[in-house]
């Protein structure tokens, strides 16, 4: 089927541009008239070039922050009594980010054909997760799409800030460790060989009794090119792993074995579980569906398996808090608050209180972990450098004794 590029004016006087597939130009004009668009010009385009264009746009996905901003803008426009299709047109015309504008335009096209917003965004699972789609679907039926989008945007902002705080807590000691490794190899490859050469020229230093630092220095100098390539390979692998969900899950499982980090990750898991459960419950999503969506949100396999077990127990007729108690998924305090809320019929409010409580505790834990990890790494670096200095000075003193 041929592809046509068109320019048209909508009912508000704005100029729209786009591509549509149609059997003929007459059919294309009929479709534009059905959408209440006044045609300016129309041009048949090469199908392969159009396909390449779509492929290029589809290959670039909008960022998490872009989707959050889109959600906020859409909620604000809908709250101002702007129709959904018109709101999407406004956002499309105002955004300057190509990846986001292409998705907005595609969503507008789907909606203009009579489909729902949930159906339109479901085609982009990387940008709109299943929890997002399900909440929109329920909100469209209930008629409170603007309020639901505002809730989604607020939760995404909060989750983004939480993830940034966690990343910052991990980044600080990691950067210190990388700096220590860099200083260590600089000393081994540049500084220590200067003293090593002085010892070798005397011919009196015994290789059997020399400090270990000189042996390490000779190994590092002899394999400096290999070490450089290995460092670049590790940096590249780390950059790729940072974008991989499997790598993130493996890192979380590893950190869970470290004392202190297990508590921090448990609090973060409680925040994600309870805040998402509260948000889905307020939107009218039934409990089994909410648990299934939360299971898909868990980044590590252990947490996902625990939620799956809770879901199985709930489907068998157990109460949510009883299922959570059997899996030891939530801390004792959070579980008691959830139990009270479930008894009084306010489970969503109880879940939100638990999420708020553990988010506050998580902030304190992050600040405490950062305050402790930094000095520990600095002390380790200082001890390592002191060992190198003492080793070199000891070797030089022994050389002076031999000369005397």
UniProtKB/TrEMBL annotation:
GO terms for biological process: protein secretion by the type II secretion system. InterPro entries: GspF/PilC, T2SS_GspF_dom, T2SS_GspF_sf. The chain crosses the membrane at residues 166-192, 212-236, 371-399. Gene3D superfamilies: Type II secretion system (T2SS), domain F. The keyword Cell inner membrane applies. The keyword Cell membrane applies. Its main location: membrane. Coiled coil: none annotated. Keywords: Cell inner membrane, Cell membrane, Membrane, Transmembrane, Transmembrane helix. It is found in: Cell inner membrane. Residues 71-193, 273-394 form the Type II secretion system protein GspF domain. GO terms for cellular component: plasma membrane. It is a multi-pass membrane protein. Belongs to the GSP F family. This is Type II secretion system F family protein. The lineage of its organism: Bacteria, Pseudomonadati, Pseudomonadota, Alphaproteobacteria, Hyphomicrobiales.
């Amino acid at each position: 089927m041929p592809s046509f590029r068109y320019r048209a004016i909508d009912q508000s006087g704005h100029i729209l541009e786009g591509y549509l597939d149609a059997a003929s130009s007459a059919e294309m004009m009929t479709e534009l008239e059905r959408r209440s668009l006044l045609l300016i010009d129309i041009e048949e385009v090469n199908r392969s070039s159009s396909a390449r264009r779509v492929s290029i746009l589809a290959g670039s996905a909008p960022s998490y922050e872009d989707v959050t901003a889109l959600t906020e803008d859409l909620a604000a426009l809908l709250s101002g009594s702007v129709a959904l299709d018109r709101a999407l047109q406004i956002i499309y015309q105002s955004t300057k980010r190509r990846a986001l504008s292409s998705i907005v335009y595609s969503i507008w096209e789907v909606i203009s054909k009579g489909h729902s917003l949930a159906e339109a965004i479901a085609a982009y699972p990387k940008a709109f997760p299943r929890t997002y789609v399900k909440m929109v679907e329920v909100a469209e039926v209930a008629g409170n799409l603007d309020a639901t989008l505002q809730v989604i945007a607020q939760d995404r902002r909060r989750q983004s800030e939480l993830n940034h705080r966690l990343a910052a807590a991990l980044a600080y000691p990691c950067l210190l460790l990388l700096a220590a490794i860099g200083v260590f190899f600089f000393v081994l490859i540049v500084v220590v060989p200067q003293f090593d050469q002085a010892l070798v020229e005397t011919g009196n230093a015994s290789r059997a009794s020399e400090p270990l630092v000189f042996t390490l220095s000779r190994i590092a100098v002899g394999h400096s090119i290999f070490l450089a390539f290995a460092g670049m390979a590790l940096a590249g692998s780390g950059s790729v792993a940072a974008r991989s969900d499997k790598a993130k899950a493996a890192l979380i499982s590893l950190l869970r074995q470290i004392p202190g980090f297990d508590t921090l990750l448990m609090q973060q898991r409680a925040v994600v579980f309870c805040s998402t459960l509260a948000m889905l419950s307020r939107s009218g999503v039934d409990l089994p569906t909410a648990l299934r969506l939360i299971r898909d949100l868990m980044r590590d396999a252990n947490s996902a398996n625990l939620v799956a077990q809770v879901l199985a127990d709930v489907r068998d007729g157990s109460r949510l808090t009883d299922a959570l108690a059997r899996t030891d998924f939530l801390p004792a305090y959070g579980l008691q608050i959830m139990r009270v809320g479930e008894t009084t019929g306010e489970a969503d409010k109880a879940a939100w209180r638990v999420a708020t409580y553990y988010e506050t505790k998580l902030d304190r834990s992050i600040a405490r972990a950062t305050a402790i990890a930094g000095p520990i790494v600095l002390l380790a670096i200082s001890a390592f450098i002191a060992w190198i200095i003492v080793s070199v000075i000891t070797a030089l003193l022994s050389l002076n004794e031999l000369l005397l």
